[in-house]
Specification:
With about 350 residues, the protein is mostly helical. The protein folds into 2 domains: about 150 residues, Cytochrome Bc1 Complex, Chain D, domain 2, CATH 1.10.760; about 140 residues, Cytochrome Bc1 Complex, Chain D, domain 2. It has a two-stranded antiparallel ribbon. The N terminus is likely disordered.
C-alpha cells in the first residue's frame, strides 16, 4: 500500500510539472523589436507643419546619438538617488505625459506643483516648461535634473556616474567619437531623441492628407473648434506656443504665479504655457496642475467657471465661451481625432 501511494504521488508530480511546462510553452513569445536604421532617425514632418524652431542645425540626428539619447531619457542615474528618470514622469502610452499623477513625483516621494506635460513636436517649441523658464530644447533636461522636487541632482554628479559606466563610455564614443561625457553631449543626445518625437499621423492628419474623412460629428466639432478654440490651440500643432491666463481659480495649495515666476512681471501673473491638444484624449489629467480629469470638465470650465482677474486672457473677458451640451460633445469627438496611435506605440521611443 505505501508503495502504491508513492507511485500515485510521483505520477501526480510529473503530471503537474508537465502541465507547467505545457502552459509555459504557450506563453506569448517576447516581442522582437527590430534594430534601428539611419532612415529611422531622419527629421521629417508634413508639408503643412510650420518651419521648426529647432532644425538640428548643429546637432544632426545620428543613429548612435539617438540611441544614446533614448538610453539617457530612461536613465535613473540622472537623479540624486538613482530612482527617477525622464521616462518616470513622461510615459509613451500617454504621449509622454503621465496619467497616474496630477503633479510630478520626484526623489524621496516629493511632489512638485505642476502636471508633467506631454512631450511631442518639441522641435517647434519656442519656450519650455509651464512657465517658459527654459528657452532651448538642448537646455530643457537640465531643469528637471536640478529641480529639488524632481531629480534633485547636480549635473557634475551625473557626468561622474555616467563616466564610471563602461557601457555609457562606449555609447558616448559611438555617438561623439570619444568616451568623454560632458553636459553638452548629454543634452544634445537627449535633444536628438526628444526632437524626433513627432506626432503627425492622427486621423486629423490623415484627413488633411486626403487619406480619411471626418464623421459628421467630428466635422461639426472641427468647425466649432476653429471658431472657439483655434486662436490659442492653433493648427496644426494645436498650440500657439504662447502663455495665457485661462481663468482658473488659484489653488491655495500651490499658489502658483505661472510665468511671473520667471519674468517677475505682474502682467504675467497666472499665465501658463498653452499646451498642445495633440493626443489630448490620452494625456489626462489636464491643466497646469492636473486639476481636471476629463475633457468634459475642461469644456465646462470655459462655459461656467472662468474667474475674472486682471491678467485674464482678453478672449475670455466675457466670462464664458458659449457652448451647448451637443456642441461640447462634438468638440470632444473632434479632439479624439488628434490621437496618434502610431506615435503612442512607436518602438523607436520605447525603453530598451
Amino acid at each position: 500500500m505505501p508503495s502504491q501511494r508513492i507511485k500515485l504521488v510521483t505520477t501526480s508530480i510529473f503530471a503537474f510539472v508537465g502541465a507547467c511546462v505545457f502552459f509555459a510553452s504557450c506563453d506569448r513569445d517576447p516581442e522582437i523589436i527590430p534594430a534601428l536604421t539611419n532612415d529611422d532617425v531622419k527629421f521629417e514632418y508634413p508639408s503643412y507643419f510650420p518651419q521648426p524652431v529647432y532644425a538640428f542645425q548643429n546637432n544632426m540626428p545620428t543613429l548612435e546619438g539617438f540611441e544614446l539619447g533614448r538610453k539617457l531619457f530612461y536613465e535613473p542615474m540622472l537623479s540624486r538617488d538613482n530612482t527617477i528618470s525622464c521616462g518616470s514622469c513622461h510615459q509613451q502610452v500617454s504621449a509622454f505625459a503621465n496619467t497616474e499623477h496630477d503633479v510630478s513625483h520626484g526623489v524621496d516621494g516629493l511632489l512638485g506643483n505642476r502636471n508633467a506635460p506631454a512631450l511631442q513636436n518639441m522641435a517647434w517649441f519656442t519656450l519650455f516648461m509651464w512657465d517658459g523658464g527654459i528657452n532651448h530644447i538642448e537646455s530643457q533636461p537640465l531643469g528637471p535634473i536640478a529641480n529639488p522636487v524632481e531629480m534633485d541632482e547636480d549635473i557634475n554628479n551625473v557626468i561622474a556616474k555616467l563616466s564610471a559606466s563602461t557601457a555609457y563610455r562606449k555609447l558616448f564614443k559611438a555617438a561623439f567619437g570619444d568616451e568623454t561625457v560632458t553636459t553638452q553631449r548629454i543634452t544634445r543626445a537627449i535633444a536628438q531623441f526628444q526632437g524626433l518625437m513627432i506626432s503627425d499621423n492622427s486621423k486629423y492628419d490623415q484627413v488633411r492628407q486626403g487619406r480619411a474623412s471626418f464623421t459628421a460629428q467630428e466635422q461639426s466639432g472641427y468647425q466649432l473648434f476653429q471658431a472657439k478654440c483655434n486662436a490659442c490651440h492653433t493648427e496644426p500643432l494645436f498650440t500657439n506656443n504662447g502663455f495665457r491666463n485661462n481663468g482658473l481659480p488659484v489653488d491655495p495649495t500651490y499658489n502658483d504665479s505661472g510665468r511671473m515666476h520667471i519674468t517677475l512681471n505682474p502682467l504675467d501673473s497666472l499665465l501658463f504655457k498653452v499646451p498642445s491638444l495633440r493626443n489630448i484624449e490620452k494625456t489626462s489629467p489636464y491643466m497646469h496642475d492636473g486639476r481636471m480629469v476629463t475633457l468634459q470638465e475642461c469644456l465646462d470650465h470655459y462655459t461656467n467657471d472662468i474667474v475674472i482677474s486682471p491678467t485674464l486672457d482678453p478672449l475670455l473677458s466675457s466670462g464664458s465661451i458659449p457652448l451647448t451640451a451637443q456642441e461640447k460633445a462634438d468638440i470632444i469627438a473632434f479632439l479624439r481625432t488628434l490621437t496618434d496611435t502610431e506615435f503612442l506605440t512607436d518602438p523607436r521611443f520605447r525603453e530598451r
